[in-house]
Amino acid sequence: MKPKLESMKDLHDKILKEINGTSTSTAEDISPSKFAELTKQLHDLSLITDKYSEIEAQIRDLLSLQQMLDDPLTNEDKDLLEMTQEEIKTTTEAIIEMEKELLLSMVPKDLADEGNALLEIRAGTGGDEAGLFAADILRMYERFAERQRWRWEEISKTHDGLGAIKDATIAITGNNVFGHLKYESGVHRVQRVPATETQGRIHTSTITVAIMPQPTEVQVQIADADVRVDVFRASGSGGQKVNTTDSAIRLTHLPTGIVVAIQDERSNQKNRAKAFTILRAKLYEREREKLALERRDSRRAQVGGGSRSEKIRTYNFPQNRVTDHRINKTLHELESVLDGAALPEFIQALRVEEQTDLLMAMNDEVA
């Protein structure tokens, strides 16, 4: 690990010189965007190199204290001996804690963690019961978002009159939205007795959840020639709230085949803007998944990978139990989880597991 830290110190000094204009390798002025990028990189490296320097200073102090302990004069003075032994203990504990902090600061950071996210929920197997469960999970995330003081904006939602949801797409805006919710992608399973079940049998239904970072137009640029835009008349349920104008929008991204259709708004322009928001997110996520597959260590499974086909969590109503299968964590607080209050317990445990995986992968690379 030390060679990696030393290389980080060298990179820190190189970037600092470049920013100060003293680097011989940079003849031209730094552009504002490049300057912002270098400043952010320098800040992130400083968090690591400063901590490393503190640890090195503490280690030097510890060596000096150990030399004092080996000095016969120290052993002859009882008070000095006790004080030295206490300082050695305190310094050793401080070094251990600082090394833990240093390791965590070295974990590769996902820049998307700090930004906004798109939430997609789709009912899976189980018919109406799956749709009702999709509505429950949608409420869970909405309540969690309220607790985090995030902004919740409905992009599209298809539902029936009984409260069941076929699919829903939500834009969530705030600090570290994707970083909190990225572990939620996958298949969520419910086991309960439906209200329509007369013999008390437990039914199993599933829904899929997808969490995608929400990129800006600068991060994902879409060429006009790559998108086919179809305008059509929105359809509705039972003849109600049906647009009489061609306001619904369907986008087809020709290079990837991704299709996005929006008909929730009566305005063609609003539907178009929402559709492009979703398309940008899908294209951004597609590239992220491609990079993740290239970088992922084949020996380890990434906790935050979020495969939509992966069964990640079971909500068992008869046993008041919620189990996350990726980390084998169970809470007998189903109501609190569905209220969004206990959800952070799963999120924090998944974050720790991911950090552990990343640290082990780093150690493998160094070895």
TrEMBL record:
This protein's name: Peptide chain release factor domain-containing protein
Family under the similarity heading: Belongs to the prokaryotic/mitochondrial release factor family.
Cross-referenced InterPro entries: PCRF, Pep_chain_release_fac_I, Pep_chain_release_fac_I_sf, Prokaryotic/Mito_RF, RF-1
One CC-aspect GO term: mitochondrion
Location of this chain's protein in the cell: Cytoplasm
Gene Ontology MF terms: translation release factor activity, codon specific
One Pfam family per UniProt: RF-1
Main localisation: cytoplasm
UniProtKB keywords: Cytoplasm, Methylation, Protein biosynthesis
Organism whose genome encodes this protein: Linnemannia gamsii
Ranges for domain Peptide chain release factor: 71-184
Stored SUPFAM superfamilies: Release factor
Biological processes, Gene Ontology terms: mitochondrial translational termination
